[in-house]
Structures are given as structure tokens and as C-alpha cells.
Amino acid sequence: MEVEAVVGRTGSLPCDIEPDSHEDRVYMVLWFRHAGGKPLYSFDVRGRSFNKALHWSDPLAFGKRAYFVTMSRPSSLTVEAVQLDDEGIYRCRVDFKNSPTRNFQIKLNVIVPPHQLLLYDEAGRDVAGVVGPLEEGGNFTLLCELRGGRPQPTLSWLINNTPVDDHTILKNDGKIIISKIVISGAQRSWLNSTVRCQATNTALLSPHERSARVEMNLRPTSVSIIQKPGQMSADSEVTLVCVTHGSRPPAQVAWFRENRKYTRGKHSEYINDTSTVSKLTMLPQPEDDGTTIRCRADNPILRVALEDSFKMSVVYKPVVSMSLGSTLNPNDIKEGDDVYFECNIKSNPKEHRISWYHNDEQVSQNMSSGVFISTKSLVLQRVTRQDVGLYSCRAANQIGESTSQSVFLRVQYAPTCAQATPVVIGARLDESLRVRCTVSADPADVAFYWQFNNSGESFQVSPARYVSTGGTASELRYRAASERDYGALLCRASNAVGTQHKPCVFQIVPAARPSPPRNCTANRVAAKVDVILAVKCIAGYDGGLNQHFLLEAVGDTSKALANTTAGKIDLVVWLNISWSVLETLGEEEVLTVSARNNKGVSDPVLLKELVFKDAAKHTEETTQVIAKFPLAAAFAASAAIVTAAGAIIALIFKKRHESSSTSKRPCQSVVQVDAQGRRYLIAYPTPHTQEKQEIKPDILNPKHGEAEGPRVVLESSDNTSYIIREANPLPHSTCVSHTSHDDMVILLL
């Protein structure tokens, strides 16, 4: 018989050692090669049991590679690591106890498997496990090359385990076999198919093979936007889903708005071998209304694309923009010019209301004032500086209301006073002042000039006396050297538009410490979190300067409790203090209210008979501090005597002209000041000089001695009757009173 063994593997040489009868048994098994007389392997059972038989292998033959196996049927001589030299004819001799010797002849064929198997394309490139990529309808050619093998192997081709009979043997020289197949009309179904080239020369081994997977580039077969929205709202997030199938490699999905790639929003993709899902999360904008959005699936290799699209319908509140009339120059509008604005609106659905605003206040049509409103325009005739500011328009539809950007209207105008005028400035004789004049003007490049007026003269102030402190402000250095320097300073400015029509007026008056507050009352008030003492007073004459008011606790020392200023319109002064603070005051401490300015402190007003410990008893009374303030007490006593006695007539004469340089000056001068809705007549003592100097109408008169405070302050609200508000004792003087008909007579009641 013939047996096969693969070189390098294990081979078996069968030999039947079963006796013909049960009474018989094997004595010895000998293996010989071909006609050799010397055994190369023996199995000896003589004189011992079968399981303890002796095994011997010729070390010059098989050696340890051979072993006789009796467990198999038939028994066999197993040879490991078969070599080519092992090929040949072997004889197995079996000796029995009773039966005659039995001989078997076995031919051993040693098989050599193929040495090398190659798979490559017609260009000689190894396909490395992959064929392609192929295109649909395309062709491909593969070659299989076999080297080695004994006996000579046979080659075969299979596609998905299906044999391919149509192949060509290009070469067979006994050592190398080359086979070729040509496949045409590649189909989509071939994707991932397996092409095998197999070589075999024995059934003992699996066929030797090389295989390759078919890779293909496939066009997308479909693309679709899922659930296309019918209507979208601006700034409301919407997600669009686009699905494409069939492309290999996976299709690249891109979104387009009209013909431009859409880059806004969030993009996400989910990909498998031949399908792509793309999600676009977007916020539609008003400008998207009526435009087409497209989803495009593109095979990046084949450059073949499919797309799906739909037309967007976006509803949104109006988009509003505003502009100054196209024929107007925004930097060349002056008072008296006509101006118009245009409101541009884009809306879906259409707007149903348009409104106009100036500095966030709605503008209504007023034909008498020159304000005209048409559908989408606003006309302002004969604009003034009050029309300066930010203008905007608003439009509303069913979705909502929108406001345009603000457009600034600049109206150029001649300078005007930036502060209230006239301004009363209190000054003592020979006191240096810096009078600041500020104007409002457009353009702000202005030129200033100053003028001084009093009852007897008017003249221009030298430019050397004032400086511009920046664009629309000028500061004048001024000093009242004599009574003639009290009067009105007029400030005017001019710019490219024109000259200031009404000047800024600064009334320079003699300055003094303020008069005491009057009509002071005190009340206990329960607030939300605390109980307070509320003190209310009416401000007196401010002495020509800014004044403030102080509530103090006066004892051995003074303690400030509250500080405030008077209301600008009603002149009411409010001073509030926590009741718990009052309870900490000593019995010897009293509450006072006084007025203060830069020239000093008024006489204090005493708040007495306040029982702090008893909430049921509170009285409010205003009086002068007598014991602690002798000067105020003297003044109060004098006022009481005057009232009780009736009318005291004081003649205060003011000369119209000085007759000569040696004439004596009047003992006092009277200044009339209109401020805060009231008229004040103030009597000031005249400084004494041994020899009267010539007084010139100039703001640079030489310095005199410190002026005394006012002797008498009269206050009137109707310009007919006056009330005494302050009276200082008359100092001893050598001045002469005049009684000419040119003098002013003041009746004190």
C-alpha cells in the first residue's frame, strides 16, 4: 500500500499485527527498509507481557523520531518530522507464536507543500488583501503565481466560495505556475466580496491560498431632508436632518444657503459604511426668508453628488433702520433749517404701526410746531437746539416690535448761558474773585468778551483780565476795590454761527455772613425703622454766598448732629436726627440751628422745651439764644423795642455826585439784591479814610481796609413792605449823614 506524509510533519506506516485466532499471540514485529536485511525498528514481546514489550529504533535510521503504536487499528509505525530521505518502500514483518510470519510492504511518499503563493494585479502590485477600489461597471485583472511544491500543485480561483472556471495559465515550467483571471462589469453587490487563489498537492493539508477583499467606490443613491418645516420663526432654534445612503466612502454632507455654504449654526454627523446623517441646528434670521437651503451629499472620490432642498419661510418682527435725509449734511445743520428722517423697514408679516421717538420720548405730529409725520418719514421744520438728540423709529407687526438704531441730530447754534443767570456773587471789598462763565454752543470753538455795568457806567473788560479755560468756558479775575465796583459783570461769546444774544450776568454784591434761619419747628416722627426728630426751618438771606445749615448740640462743647442745604425753590431746610441720639444728650446740652457760608456763621436759633424722655410732650418754638449768645440777644431786644414803639423812620441818604474831593462820605451805603424770589436791601458801613482817593470805574482799584458786616438787612417778597432780618449795633463813627433830596428813604416797620 501507499501512504503520504508531509515533510516536516508526522507520518504513519500501517502494519496489521492482529493474530488469526485468540489462542495465538505476537512474538515480534520488525521493520525493514526496501530490501535491506538489517531491521531499523523492532517490537519484542518474547518472554514478557504485551504491555511490556521492548521497543528499539536504529539510531542511524529513524532514531527517536519513530515509535510503534499498538493502540491504533491497524497498528502503525509513527515517524515524526518526516524528511525527504524518509521516502521509500518499507517492510513490516510480524512473527506469531503459532501462526506463520506475516509481511506487509508500504510505500511512503513524502509531500512538499507549495513554497510561495503571490496575488497581484496586472501592473505587478501586490493587492495586500484588498482589490480595488473599483467603480461600478469597472473591470479588474488578477494574477496568481505559485512557486515550489512536490508533487506539482494545482491552482484554482474562487469568488465568494464559487469556483471560477474561466482562468488562464500563463506559465507552468514545473517550478512556477502563473494563472490569470479577468473580471468585468463590477456591480455594487461585489462590495466586500472575497477573491481567492488556492494551490493544493495533498489532501493532508488545507489548500494554500491568497485572498483579497473587493473594495468599491460607490455613488450615493439617495439624499433627503427629513420633515421639511413649513414655517420658521426668526431666532427660534430649529433642527434640520439630512440623510444620505449608498455612498462609499461615506458621502460628505454640506449645507448651502442659495449658492453659498452655510456656516452658521451647529453641525453634527453620524456615519457608517454607506450612510451619513447630518443635523443642522440653526437660528433662522430675517434675511433667510424666501431663500433656498440645500443639503448636498458628495462622494469625495467620484465627485458625484446628490442634493435635496426647500425654500425657507421665516416670520420675524420688523427689521428697522433709520437715517438722516440723504440730501442733508449732518455736520451742517443750523437753527432754523428743515430736517427729515427716513425709516427703512423689512417685515414678515407686514408692519401695522410705525412710531417716532426723540430721546426715547414719542414724537407726535404737530403742524403748528413744524412736526410732520408721513408713512416712513419724519419732517422737522425750523429746528432749534431743543431738537438736538437721538432720534429713532419703531415698527410693529404680529410677531413683535423693533426699534431702529439711534441717529444723532446735531443742530449748530450761537452760544447761550450754560448756567442759570443772573448769578449772585458775594464779595468783600478788596477780595479777589475768579468768575467763571460757561456757555453752551455748537460748534464749541467760541470767543469771549466781558463787560462791567453799574448804575453809573458801563465799560469793556480788558482781555488781559480773563482767560479761556477750555472751549466753552472763560474765567475772569476780579476784585471789588470800592463800592463802585459792585455791579453786573456781563459775559458774551461768539462762534461760527453767531454771537450770543443774551449775556451771562454775574451780580457782584457785598458779601456777609448769612442771616439766621426762621420759623424753625421740631417734630417727633415715627419712621419705618426708627423714630426721628424732624427739624424744619426757612432759609434766611444767604449773604450773597452759598450757605448750608447745621443742627448742633451745644453744651460745654459743640457737637454737630445734622448738616444740609435748603431747597432751591421753597427755601425749606430739613434737619433729621435719630431720637436715640437725642436720648444720649445731657440735660445741660441744647439744640441749635445755624446757617453758614464762606464769610461766617449766623446767630444760632435755639430749639427749646423739647422733652426728649416724654413722647407725649413736644413743642416747637424758635427764639434767639440769649444767655450763651449776647450779640443775638441784643439784636432781639432792639427788634422788640422797635416793634413796641411803633414806626421808626431812618433816613439813609445816598449822594448822586461827589461835589469835591474834600467832601465827607456818607456813613453807610445801601445795596439792593434780588435773589431767590425776594428783594433784599442791605446797609453797609463805609470805610473811613483820612483823605479820599480818586475812585475810577475800574476793577483794579487799590486795596482798602477790611469792610465791616451789614448793619441792617431788610427782606421783602412784594417790593413794597420790608421786614428786618438782621441788625448790628451801630459803631461810633464820625461820618456825616446827608439829607439831600437825592437820598433814599427806607421805612422800618
Automatic annotation (TrEMBL):
<feature type="domain" description="Ig-like">
    <location>
        <begin position="220"/>
        <end position="313"/>
    </location>
</feature>
<protein>
    <recommendedName>
        <fullName>Ig-like domain-containing protein</fullName>
    </recommendedName>
</protein>
<dbReference type="InterPro" id="IPR013162">
    <property type="entry name" value="CD80_C2-set"/>
</dbReference>
<feature type="transmembrane region" description="Helical">
    <location>
        <begin position="631"/>
        <end position="653"/>
    </location>
</feature>
<dbReference type="Pfam" id="PF07679">
    <property type="entry name" value="I-set"/>
</dbReference>
<dbReference type="GO" id="GO:0016020">
    <property type="term" value="C:membrane"/>
</dbReference>
<dbReference type="InterPro" id="IPR013106">
    <property type="entry name" value="Ig_V-set"/>
</dbReference>
<feature type="domain" description="Ig-like">
    <location>
        <begin position="318"/>
        <end position="408"/>
    </location>
</feature>
<dbReference type="InterPro" id="IPR036179">
    <property type="entry name" value="Ig-like_dom_sf"/>
</dbReference>
<feature type="domain" description="Ig-like">
    <location>
        <begin position="415"/>
        <end position="495"/>
    </location>
</feature>
<feature type="domain" description="Ig-like">
    <location>
        <begin position="1"/>
        <end position="109"/>
    </location>
</feature>
<dbReference type="InterPro" id="IPR013098">
    <property type="entry name" value="Ig_I-set"/>
</dbReference>
<keyword id="KW-1133">Transmembrane helix</keyword>
<dbReference type="Pfam" id="PF07686">
    <property type="entry name" value="V-set"/>
</dbReference>
<dbReference type="InterPro" id="IPR007110">
    <property type="entry name" value="Ig-like_dom"/>
</dbReference>
<keyword id="KW-1015">Disulfide bond</keyword>
<dbReference type="Pfam" id="PF08205">
    <property type="entry name" value="C2-set_2"/>
</dbReference>
<dbReference type="InterPro" id="IPR003599">
    <property type="entry name" value="Ig_sub"/>
</dbReference>
<feature type="domain" description="Ig-like">
    <location>
        <begin position="114"/>
        <end position="215"/>
    </location>
</feature>
<keyword id="KW-0472">Membrane</keyword>
<dbReference type="InterPro" id="IPR003598">
    <property type="entry name" value="Ig_sub2"/>
</dbReference>
<keyword id="KW-0812">Transmembrane</keyword>
<dbReference type="InterPro" id="IPR013783">
    <property type="entry name" value="Ig-like_fold"/>
</dbReference>
